[in-house]
Structure prediction request, 155 residues.
Amino acid sequence: MKFKSIFLEALDSIEIKAIPSKNRPSDVDIIGAYQNNELIGKASINKTTDPYHFLLSYIHVNPEFRNQGIAKKLVEYIQSKYTSRPIILQPESFGFKFKGKTNEELRAMYSHLGFKTLVNQPNYMIWRPTVSESAIQQSPALPSAQTHMLAPPKI
Prediction:
C-alpha cells in the first residue's frame, strides 16, 4: 500500500503543459510532461484543417519514466483541451511505439483511455465522437500519421 502511495505522489508531481511554438506549423501543438522542470515526455496534436477531427500524431516518454502513467496524463490533458472535435490516432504508427509493448497492448491502453477502433478503418482509433463515426469515415481522407507527423525530437 505504501508503494502505491509513493507512486501516486510521484505522478502528482508531473506537470503537463503546452510547449511554446518554435518554428513549427501553426496547426501543430506539442504538449510536454515535466518533472522538476525537466521535460520527460511529450505528445503532438495536429489541429488538421479537416473539420472532422484532431490527429494525435505521437506520444513519447523518456525510457526511465515509462510505465508510470505519464502517457496517460498526456492523453488525458489533450482530451480535456481538445474537445470541439473527435481525436483520432493510429496506434501501430511509429509515433506510438513503446519499447516492449505489442500492438495489442497499445490498443488496450488507448481503449482504457476511451478510444474506440473505427469499424471501417481498423488502423485508426477515435476518442469522443462528437460527430458520428459514419461522418468521420466519410471524411475525404483520414491522414496518415506518417505524413502528418513531426518526428519526435530526442528528449
Remarks:
- Residues 1-9, 145-155 have pLDDT under 50 and may be disordered.
- The chain has one domain: 2-137.
- The helical segments are 2-12, 70-81, 103-112, 133-137.
